[in-house]
Amino acid sequence: MKVAAILLLCMALFHQGHSNSCQGRCGYGIDTSYSCQCNTACERYNDCCSDYYTLCKAGDSGATITDAEIKSLSETLFALDTNKASASQLILDPQALVADSQTSSKSDLSSRPLYKFVDENALFTRPTYAALLNLFDNYKRITGQAESFTSQQLTEQETFLKETMLNTELGRELFAFLYTKGVYKSEAEFIEDLKNMWFGLYSRYNGAMDSSGFEHIFAGEIKGGKVSGFHNWIRFYLLEKRGELNYYSHSFNGPWSNYPDVLGLQFHWDGYYKQVGSAVIGCSPEFDLALYSLCYIARPGKYCYLSLGGKQFIIQTYTWDNSSYGNGKKYIGSAYPVSM
């Protein structure tokens, strides 16, 4: 009994001595018996140990999720995107290519729509596309106007997350990776965090609960007399088809010869101009959501270096620092492909 008591005392003293340190704990899952954490989730929960960045992320070479892992995973997700558009299902007419110095001129240099053909019957009947389409009409685009959701609209949000992240091999691959890295303990925790991260409301203007990561990135907003966010190709196509969006030019065309590709776009949305709106073109909704989520979780507020088909692809993410959810976690402020 004395030996057991001594062992227990030693273990308690060891735990106490290491409860505020990441020594030997880098990458471990969340453990509430410790006063601080040592995995990538702590960056968004704001509960990292004081030596987390020194011990776990020194020069990024010791990061819990390394740049090499992100690039490898992005290639895997790229290969798993079986719901992406094929060359026969999506035909573009890019027309005018302008220099970065010309993007502020607001010059309509294209006489035809960007989207020449989209096979809606083939693409939009798929569950993840259909779930995304149901969300677009749930938002007021002008910031300062508070958003509110009916029970049906809340169900549509959950359906979108489950269809994209749980019912596709691509989404399950993302969860499996984050699970092995200790970011999430279960699929339920994963989906619940994505729901808050993407659909949780916060205020961009005058205190009104008028925005979310999803609205800003996928649906687009109007703030300060111009288009803000708006980085989804399907949203662009639908508005252009309805005559509410006028394509002007593009300032960037990615190196990919098939889909997904990346374009940096100039356009006019029903009275408001977007100087450069970058988007991944032709990808599935689950691919868009997975890459943005991966980059936000692994590299919040930073450049996130990925690889698609052997070619470098960069996503910039921003945290929303004026409010939080859960135990201090930060909402997505923005995320978009770097087009330069």
List the helices and strands and how they pair.
Elements lengths: L1 H17 L22 H5 L6 H5 L10 H14 L9 E3 L22 E4 L1 H4 L3 H7 L17 H16 L2 H12 L6 H13 L13 H7 L1 E3 L2 E3 L4 H9 L3 E9 L7 E9 L2 E10 L3 H14 L4 E6 L2 E15 L3 E9 L3
Antiparallel strand pairs: 1-2, 3-4, 5-6, 6-7, 8-9, 9-10
Helix pairs in contact: 4-8, 4-12, 6-7, 7-9
Protein architecture, described:
The protein is an alpha+beta fold and 340 residues long. The protein is built from 12 helices and 10 strands. The strands form 4 sheets. It has a 3-stranded antiparallel β-sheet, covered by helices on one side. A 3-stranded antiparallel β-sheet has the order 8-9-10. Strands 1-2 form a two-stranded antiparallel ribbon. Strand 5 and strand 6 form a beta hairpin. Helix 7 crosses helix 9. The longest helix has 17 residues. It is globular and about 65 Å long. About 4% of the residues have low confidence.
